[in-house]
Design goal:
about 290 residues; mainly beta; 13-stranded antiparallel sheet; three-stranded antiparallel sheet; about 5% helix
């Protein structure tokens, strides 16, 4: 499956409904991390119905214990290509016997891709096809190659918000013994540095007012992702020398320490009534 115009080509895989590549045919630049290093085997998974995981790695619904892998279900499933509008790539999946063993709720999941110039628009639609309220969180985890060009380094790159921001940074306890803390940070530009991720393995911010964030390097190439509608924004790379960075809009987050709330009331959890649909989306623009 692919979308293509005179300048750009984007390919897709049914595994997780993910982007396989986003290539500038003129420059040869590949923008998406290919999952081909020892640092991380993922690429750009959808996080549903969990972002992260519960603190205990399991949870209880109606007296029965269930468990999902990190970041939920979709990233591990194989979707089916579906019919969409002209110029769209659409993939979908329904809950089944195997998903119900991990997550006891019926759903229909769709992901829509459309390419317009240098911009890939991505839209998600999740429908509660069951007969009871469905608790879930949702997030995105796209990995971008960093650096993009020969002669650049990871530390040459900057993440820039569209506007100056006063943000709340969520800081988990590394040992998970106490609830996360928060601090206020004022910034518009964040210079990437592996040392930052040694101190904060994932940078997690809330309170963004900017409509977008840009990852850019010294040779003028990078990516711009939209943030509108997402209450949280995370930035992650796993360790020094990993040649990529993930820019992650989230609706919720995993448990950073033990929580008292049940699965329906964890921070960031949304409830979808029977027959209702949850829809959201974002864009990736390359340059």
């Amino acid at each position: 499956m692919k979308l293509e115009n005179e300048r750009y080509e984007v390919t897709f895989t049914t595994k997780g409904g993910e982007i396989a590549s986003f290539t500038d045919k003129q420059t040869g630049i590949q923008y998406m991390y290919q999952g081909d290093t020892p640092y991380w085997g993922g690429k750009n998974p959808t996080l549903f119905p969990l972002v992260g995981n519960t603190f205990t790695k399991d949870y209880v619904i109606d007296g029965q214990t269930y468990a999902m892998k990190n970041h939920g279900l979709i990233r591990y499933l194989t979707l089916t290509e579906a019919k969409g509008d002209a110029g769209e790539v659409v993939m979908e999946i329904n809950s089944d016997e195997e998903t119900l063993k991990q997550y006891p709720f019926d759903f229909h999941y769709e992901i829509h891709y459309a390419l317009d110039g240098a911009t890939l628009a991505i839209r998600y639609v999740i429908t509660n096809t069951g007969s009871k309220d469905m608790p879930f969180t949702f997030g995105l985890h796209p990995g971008f190659l960093c650096p993009l060009c020969e002669g650049e380094t990871f530390e040459d790159y900057t993440v820039t918000f569209a506007d100056p921001e006063t943000l709340t940074q969520i800081i988990p306890d590394p040992e998970g013994k106490t609830p996360y803390s928060e601090k206020t940070v004022e910034m518009q530009n964040l210079s990437l540095d592996y040392g930052t991720f040694e101190k904060y393995p994932t940078l997690i911010y809330k309170g963004m007012k900017s409509a977008s964030a840009v990852l850019a390097g010294p040779k003028g190439h990078g990516v711009k992702i939209s943030l509108t509608g997402f209450p949280l924004f995370a930035i992650w790379t796993p360790k020094e020398r990993a040649p990529f960075v993930c820019l992650e809009p989230w609706f919720g987050h995993g448990d950073f320490s033990e929580v008292k709330e049940d699965f329906y009331h964890r921070e960031g959890t949304m409830l979808l009534s029977p027959g209702e649909r949850f829809a959201c989306g974002y864009t990736i623009e390359v340059f």
